[in-house]
Amino acid sequence: MKPVVSVLNAWSCVVISLFAIVILSVLGSLYQREHHGFTGSEDEPEDGAAVAASIFTAVIIYACFFVFCAFQAYLHMRSRRDGAISLN
Predict the structure, then answer these.
(1) d(C-alpha 1, C-alpha 13), whole Å
(2) What span, in angstroms and rounded, lies between the C-alpha atoms of 33 and 35?
(3) Which of 69, 75, 66 is nearest to 17 (CA)?
(4) Which of 17, 47, 54, 58 suits a disulfide with 66, CB 3.0-4.6 Å?
């Protein structure tokens, strides 16, 4: 199987997706627990559970991006290794 995206795009997507998963998971858990810094004031949403559900949906989408891009990076590493001259 050949990779669909370039090496740089695959690794960039892996790093960005990983950071997005971590950051959005923290934000989603804070909204889910109705943290006073994120809910309850006049300009903030009152239903923290609804906000947390949409944030966790974004986490699932980023996890799918992470898996796809990590697989693309793996395909690049595998294709690079097959073309190398081996001394064994």
Answers:
(1) 20
(2) 5
(3) 66
(4) 17
Distance separating alpha carbons of residues 33 and 5, to the nearest angstrom = 39
51/78 Cα distance (integer angstroms): 41
Domains of the chain by residue range: 7-82
Report whether 41 contacts 35 (CB < 8 A).
no
- From first to last of its 88 residues, what are the pLDDT tens digits of the chain? 888 999 999 999 999 999 999 999 999 998 888 877 777 777 778 788 899 999 999 999 999 999 999 999 999 888 877 655 555 5
Under 8 Å between Cβ of 62 and 21: yes
